[in-house]
Amino acid sequence: MSAATDQVIPFAIKPLGVRGRLVRLGPVVDDILSKHDYPDAVSALVAESVALTAMLGTTLKFNGKFIVQTKTDGPVTMLVADYVVPGQVRGMAKFDKTKLEGLQAPKQKELLGEGYLAMTVDQGQDMERYQGIVPLGQNTLAEAAHTYFLQSEQIPTRLRVAAGPMLSRGEKAKHWRAGAILVQHLPNEGGVSAIPEQMGDAPESFVSETPEDDNWVKARLLLDTVEDHELLDPTLSSEDLLYRLYHEDGVTVYPAIPITRHCTCSRETVEAMLRNFPKNDRADMEKDGTIEVVCEFCSTPYRFTPAELE
Q1: Beta bridge mates, 266
Q2: Mind listing the domains of the chain with CATH numbers?
Q3: Nearest Cα to 157, choosing from 239, 200, 212, 225?
Q4: Are 253 and 243 in contact (CB under 8 A)?
Protein backbone atom coordinates (compact mmCIF):
# COMPACT_ATOMS: atom_id res chain seq x y z
CA MET A 1 0.00 0.00 0.00
CA SER A 2 1.19 3.53 -0.78
CA ALA A 3 1.28 5.97 2.11
CA ALA A 4 -1.31 8.67 1.56
CA THR A 5 1.25 11.43 1.30
CA ASP A 6 3.26 13.40 -1.24
CA GLN A 7 2.59 11.37 -4.35
CA VAL A 8 0.60 11.16 -7.56
CA ILE A 9 -0.82 7.77 -8.53
CA PRO A 10 -1.91 7.14 -12.14
CA PHE A 11 -4.71 4.59 -12.48
CA ALA A 12 -7.13 3.13 -15.00
CA ILE A 13 -10.58 1.55 -14.89
CA LYS A 14 -10.15 -0.40 -18.09
CA PRO A 15 -13.69 -1.88 -18.39
CA LEU A 16 -15.05 1.68 -18.36
CA GLY A 17 -12.44 3.13 -20.74
CA VAL A 18 -11.32 5.55 -18.04
CA ARG A 19 -7.94 6.69 -16.81
CA GLY A 20 -7.11 9.05 -14.00
CA ARG A 21 -4.72 10.44 -11.40
CA LEU A 22 -4.93 10.70 -7.64
CA VAL A 23 -2.86 13.27 -5.70
CA ARG A 24 -2.22 13.11 -1.94
CA LEU A 25 -0.01 15.83 -0.46
CA GLY A 26 1.04 16.18 3.18
CA PRO A 27 4.45 17.43 4.38
CA VAL A 28 5.17 18.96 0.96
CA VAL A 29 2.19 21.32 0.98
CA ASP A 30 2.57 21.93 4.72
CA ASP A 31 6.20 22.93 4.12
CA ILE A 32 5.18 25.31 1.31
CA LEU A 33 2.58 27.03 3.51
CA SER A 34 4.85 27.14 6.57
CA LYS A 35 7.06 29.63 4.71
CA HIS A 36 4.23 32.19 4.76
CA ASP A 37 1.77 33.68 7.17
CA TYR A 38 -1.29 33.30 4.97
CA PRO A 39 -4.82 33.38 6.38
CA ASP A 40 -6.40 29.91 6.28
CA ALA A 41 -8.62 30.81 3.31
CA VAL A 42 -5.58 31.82 1.25
CA SER A 43 -3.59 28.77 2.39
CA ALA A 44 -6.39 26.50 1.19
CA LEU A 45 -6.31 28.11 -2.26
CA VAL A 46 -2.52 27.74 -2.53
CA ALA A 47 -2.74 24.10 -1.40
CA GLU A 48 -5.44 23.34 -3.98
CA SER A 49 -3.47 25.02 -6.76
CA VAL A 50 -0.37 22.97 -5.87
CA ALA A 51 -2.40 19.73 -5.88
CA LEU A 52 -3.96 20.61 -9.25
CA THR A 53 -0.54 21.49 -10.68
CA ALA A 54 1.03 18.24 -9.45
CA MET A 55 -1.81 16.20 -10.90
CA LEU A 56 -1.50 17.75 -14.37
CA GLY A 57 2.26 18.27 -14.34
CA THR A 58 2.96 14.57 -13.85
CA THR A 59 1.49 13.89 -17.30
CA LEU A 60 4.47 15.61 -18.96
CA LYS A 61 6.49 13.14 -21.00
CA PHE A 62 9.58 15.38 -21.25
CA ASN A 63 11.74 17.56 -19.02
CA GLY A 64 9.91 20.81 -18.52
CA LYS A 65 7.65 22.84 -16.30
CA PHE A 66 3.87 23.01 -15.91
CA ILE A 67 2.45 26.22 -14.45
CA VAL A 68 -1.01 27.03 -13.11
CA GLN A 69 -1.69 30.73 -12.55
CA THR A 70 -4.69 32.90 -11.76
CA LYS A 71 -5.01 36.66 -12.05
CA THR A 72 -8.20 38.20 -10.70
CA ASP A 73 -9.86 41.26 -9.20
CA GLY A 74 -10.79 39.38 -6.02
CA PRO A 75 -9.12 39.53 -2.60
CA VAL A 76 -6.65 36.84 -3.76
CA THR A 77 -5.27 38.70 -6.77
CA MET A 78 -2.84 36.00 -7.90
CA LEU A 79 -2.05 32.33 -7.41
CA VAL A 80 1.02 30.70 -8.94
CA ALA A 81 1.99 27.04 -8.67
CA ASP A 82 4.46 25.17 -10.82
CA TYR A 83 5.63 21.62 -11.31
CA VAL A 84 9.13 20.79 -12.55
CA VAL A 85 9.94 17.33 -13.89
CA PRO A 86 10.53 15.07 -12.05
CA GLY A 87 8.08 15.69 -9.22
CA GLN A 88 9.01 19.10 -7.81
CA VAL A 89 6.35 21.65 -6.83
CA ARG A 90 6.04 25.10 -5.29
CA GLY A 91 3.28 27.68 -4.89
CA MET A 92 2.49 31.18 -3.65
CA ALA A 93 -0.30 33.76 -3.49
CA LYS A 94 -0.76 37.52 -3.46
CA PHE A 95 -3.76 38.94 -1.68
CA ASP A 96 -5.36 42.19 -0.57
CA LYS A 97 -5.47 42.05 3.23
CA THR A 98 -8.08 44.81 3.51
CA LYS A 99 -10.46 43.13 1.06
CA LEU A 100 -9.96 39.78 2.76
CA GLU A 101 -10.70 41.13 6.23
CA GLY A 102 -13.99 42.53 4.91
CA LEU A 103 -15.31 39.03 4.17
CA GLN A 104 -16.94 36.74 6.70
CA ALA A 105 -16.21 33.03 6.09
CA PRO A 106 -15.44 33.70 2.40
CA LYS A 107 -16.07 31.03 -0.19
CA GLN A 108 -13.53 30.29 -2.89
CA LYS A 109 -15.53 32.14 -5.56
CA GLU A 110 -15.53 35.29 -3.42
CA LEU A 111 -11.79 35.03 -2.87
CA LEU A 112 -10.99 34.69 -6.57
CA GLY A 113 -13.52 37.05 -8.13
CA GLU A 114 -13.43 37.76 -11.86
CA GLY A 115 -10.31 36.92 -13.82
CA TYR A 116 -8.66 34.02 -15.61
CA LEU A 117 -6.94 30.70 -15.05
CA ALA A 118 -3.90 30.00 -17.23
CA MET A 119 -2.19 26.65 -17.69
CA THR A 120 1.24 26.75 -19.31
CA VAL A 121 3.67 24.10 -20.53
CA ASP A 122 7.25 25.41 -20.58
CA GLN A 123 9.62 23.07 -22.41
CA GLY A 124 12.70 25.12 -21.60
CA GLN A 125 14.93 27.55 -23.45
CA ASP A 126 14.66 27.70 -27.24
CA MET A 127 11.43 25.65 -27.11
CA GLU A 128 7.89 26.84 -27.72
CA ARG A 129 5.61 27.46 -24.74
CA TYR A 130 1.99 26.28 -24.89
CA GLN A 131 -0.74 27.97 -22.93
CA GLY A 132 -4.46 27.54 -22.37
CA ILE A 133 -6.51 30.31 -20.76
CA VAL A 134 -10.07 30.11 -19.44
CA PRO A 135 -12.13 32.74 -17.58
CA LEU A 136 -12.75 32.13 -13.91
CA GLY A 137 -16.09 33.91 -14.09
CA GLN A 138 -16.96 33.40 -10.41
CA ASN A 139 -15.88 29.76 -10.57
CA THR A 140 -13.73 27.69 -8.23
CA LEU A 141 -10.35 26.37 -9.35
CA ALA A 142 -11.88 22.95 -10.03
CA GLU A 143 -14.75 24.45 -12.05
CA ALA A 144 -12.33 26.55 -14.10
CA ALA A 145 -10.22 23.45 -14.77
CA HIS A 146 -13.37 21.66 -15.97
CA THR A 147 -14.00 24.54 -18.38
CA TYR A 148 -10.44 24.20 -19.66
CA PHE A 149 -10.84 20.50 -20.43
CA LEU A 150 -14.20 21.11 -22.13
CA GLN A 151 -13.01 23.98 -24.32
CA SER A 152 -9.39 23.16 -25.01
CA GLU A 153 -9.22 19.36 -25.00
CA GLN A 154 -12.81 18.26 -25.54
CA ILE A 155 -12.12 15.19 -23.39
CA PRO A 156 -14.84 14.18 -20.92
CA THR A 157 -13.20 14.99 -17.57
CA ARG A 158 -14.22 15.07 -13.92
CA LEU A 159 -12.08 16.21 -11.01
CA ARG A 160 -12.27 16.99 -7.33
CA VAL A 161 -9.81 19.08 -5.31
CA ALA A 162 -9.66 19.55 -1.54
CA ALA A 163 -7.33 21.16 1.00
CA GLY A 164 -7.42 21.87 4.69
CA PRO A 165 -5.57 21.91 8.01
CA MET A 166 -5.50 18.79 10.14
CA LEU A 167 -4.84 18.55 13.86
CA SER A 168 -3.56 15.22 15.11
CA ARG A 169 -4.48 14.01 18.57
CA GLY A 170 -2.09 15.37 21.17
CA GLU A 171 -0.68 18.02 18.78
CA LYS A 172 -1.17 21.77 19.10
CA ALA A 173 0.07 22.77 15.64
CA LYS A 174 -2.09 22.08 12.62
CA HIS A 175 -0.66 20.52 9.47
CA TRP A 176 -1.96 21.23 5.98
CA ARG A 177 -2.91 18.56 3.48
CA ALA A 178 -4.26 18.64 -0.06
CA GLY A 179 -5.70 16.08 -2.43
CA ALA A 180 -7.12 15.86 -5.92
CA ILE A 181 -8.54 13.17 -8.16
CA LEU A 182 -9.26 13.26 -11.89
CA VAL A 183 -10.87 10.81 -14.31
CA GLN A 184 -11.06 11.07 -18.11
CA HIS A 185 -13.00 9.00 -20.59
CA LEU A 186 -10.78 7.52 -23.29
CA PRO A 187 -12.84 4.87 -25.05
CA ASN A 188 -10.13 4.23 -27.62
CA GLU A 189 -7.07 2.38 -26.42
CA GLY A 190 -4.18 4.74 -25.83
CA GLY A 191 -5.93 8.08 -25.97
CA VAL A 192 -4.08 11.37 -25.64
CA SER A 193 -2.20 13.16 -22.92
CA ALA A 194 -4.08 15.18 -20.36
CA ILE A 195 -1.91 18.05 -21.55
CA PRO A 196 -2.15 18.28 -25.35
CA GLU A 197 0.71 19.14 -27.64
CA GLN A 198 -1.12 22.31 -28.66
CA MET A 199 -2.77 24.03 -25.70
CA GLY A 200 -5.34 26.33 -27.25
CA ASP A 201 -8.60 28.08 -26.55
CA ALA A 202 -11.93 27.04 -28.03
CA PRO A 203 -14.72 29.64 -28.20
CA GLU A 204 -16.43 30.17 -24.85
CA SER A 205 -19.70 29.16 -26.50
CA PHE A 206 -18.33 25.70 -27.39
CA VAL A 207 -20.48 22.86 -26.11
CA SER A 208 -19.82 19.26 -27.05
CA GLU A 209 -22.83 17.59 -28.66
CA THR A 210 -21.48 14.07 -28.21
CA PRO A 211 -23.90 12.01 -26.11
CA GLU A 212 -22.43 10.74 -22.85
CA ASP A 213 -21.27 7.14 -22.81
CA ASP A 214 -22.90 5.00 -20.10
CA ASN A 215 -19.52 3.84 -18.83
CA TRP A 216 -18.38 7.44 -18.52
CA VAL A 217 -21.55 8.44 -16.68
CA LYS A 218 -20.91 5.66 -14.18
CA ALA A 219 -17.27 6.66 -13.69
CA ARG A 220 -18.00 10.33 -13.05
CA LEU A 221 -20.96 9.66 -10.78
CA LEU A 222 -18.76 7.42 -8.63
CA LEU A 223 -16.08 10.13 -8.53
CA ASP A 224 -18.68 12.63 -7.33
CA THR A 225 -19.15 10.52 -4.18
CA VAL A 226 -15.61 11.32 -2.98
CA GLU A 227 -15.67 13.34 0.23
CA ASP A 228 -13.05 15.99 1.04
CA HIS A 229 -12.01 14.12 4.18
CA GLU A 230 -11.24 11.01 2.09
CA LEU A 231 -8.83 12.98 -0.10
CA LEU A 232 -7.13 14.43 2.98
CA ASP A 233 -7.13 11.49 5.40
CA PRO A 234 -3.48 10.36 5.91
CA THR A 235 -4.64 7.02 7.33
CA LEU A 236 -6.53 6.09 4.15
CA SER A 237 -4.14 4.72 1.52
CA SER A 238 -4.50 5.81 -2.09
CA GLU A 239 -5.16 2.21 -3.15
CA ASP A 240 -7.94 1.82 -0.58
CA LEU A 241 -9.57 5.04 -1.72
CA LEU A 242 -9.53 3.94 -5.36
CA TYR A 243 -10.84 0.51 -4.38
CA ARG A 244 -13.73 2.14 -2.52
CA LEU A 245 -14.68 3.98 -5.68
CA TYR A 246 -14.12 1.50 -8.48
CA HIS A 247 -13.84 -2.02 -7.01
CA GLU A 248 -16.90 -3.18 -8.94
CA ASP A 249 -15.18 -2.74 -12.31
CA GLY A 250 -11.62 -3.22 -11.14
CA VAL A 251 -8.99 -0.49 -10.94
CA THR A 252 -5.42 -0.80 -12.19
CA VAL A 253 -2.93 1.24 -10.18
CA TYR A 254 0.41 2.25 -11.71
CA PRO A 255 3.65 3.18 -9.88
CA ALA A 256 3.39 6.30 -7.74
CA ILE A 257 5.25 9.48 -8.68
CA PRO A 258 6.84 11.02 -5.56
CA ILE A 259 6.38 14.77 -5.06
CA THR A 260 8.88 17.07 -3.34
CA ARG A 261 9.00 20.80 -2.63
CA HIS A 262 11.48 22.89 -4.58
CA CYS A 263 12.41 26.50 -5.21
CA THR A 264 14.56 27.90 -8.00
CA CYS A 265 15.89 30.84 -6.02
CA SER A 266 19.55 31.07 -5.02
CA ARG A 267 21.95 33.77 -3.94
CA GLU A 268 23.60 33.64 -7.36
CA THR A 269 20.38 34.16 -9.33
CA VAL A 270 19.23 37.01 -7.06
CA GLU A 271 22.63 38.68 -7.32
CA ALA A 272 22.54 38.40 -11.12
CA MET A 273 19.06 39.96 -11.14
CA LEU A 274 20.14 42.88 -8.96
CA ARG A 275 23.21 43.52 -11.11
CA ASN A 276 20.86 44.12 -14.05
CA PHE A 277 19.30 47.10 -12.26
CA PRO A 278 20.85 50.55 -12.80
CA LYS A 279 23.00 51.75 -9.91
CA ASN A 280 20.49 54.50 -9.02
CA ASP A 281 17.68 51.93 -8.76
CA ARG A 282 19.80 49.75 -6.49
CA ALA A 283 20.49 52.78 -4.31
CA ASP A 284 16.73 53.24 -3.87
CA MET A 285 16.50 49.65 -2.62
CA GLU A 286 19.07 50.21 0.15
CA LYS A 287 18.02 50.24 3.77
CA ASP A 288 20.63 50.72 6.45
CA GLY A 289 23.33 50.03 3.90
CA THR A 290 21.85 46.69 2.80
CA ILE A 291 19.70 45.52 -0.10
CA GLU A 292 17.36 42.70 0.88
CA VAL A 293 15.36 40.53 -1.52
CA VAL A 294 12.89 37.94 -0.18
CA CYS A 295 11.80 35.05 -2.41
CA GLU A 296 8.03 35.16 -2.96
CA PHE A 297 7.82 31.36 -3.01
CA CYS A 298 9.98 30.20 -0.10
CA SER A 299 10.43 33.47 1.84
CA THR A 300 14.22 33.03 1.94
CA PRO A 301 15.91 36.43 2.46
CA TYR A 302 19.00 37.38 0.47
CA ARG A 303 21.03 40.38 1.67
CA PHE A 304 23.73 42.25 -0.24
CA THR A 305 25.88 45.29 0.39
CA PRO A 306 26.16 47.80 -2.47
CA ALA A 307 29.88 46.95 -2.77
CA GLU A 308 29.02 43.30 -3.53
CA LEU A 309 26.96 44.38 -6.53
CA GLU A 310 29.51 46.76 -8.03
Answers
A1: none
A2: 7-261 (3.55.30.10), 267-309 (3.90.1280.10)
A3: 212
A4: no
3-class secondary structure, 217: helix
> Torsion angle, CA of 227/255/21/203, rounded to 10 degrees?
170
Would you say 176 and 164 are in contact if contact means Cβ atoms under 8 Å apart? yes
The pLDDT of residue 202 is 40
Residue 108 one-letter amino acid: Q
pLDDT digit string (tens) for 186-238? 855 544 454 544 454 444 444 444 567 899 999 999 999 999 999 999 999 99
268, burial (CB in 10 Å: exposed 0-12, middle 13-18, buried 19+): exposed
Query: Which DSSP string do the residues of 145-164 spell out, in sequence order?
Result: HHHHIIIII---EEEEEEEE
User: Which parts of the chain sit beneath pLDDT 70?
Assistant: 1-3, 153, 168-171, 187-211
| Residue 32 contacts residue 46 (beta carbons within 8 Å) | yes
- Per the CB < 8 A criterion, the answer to whether 231 and 181 are in contact is yes
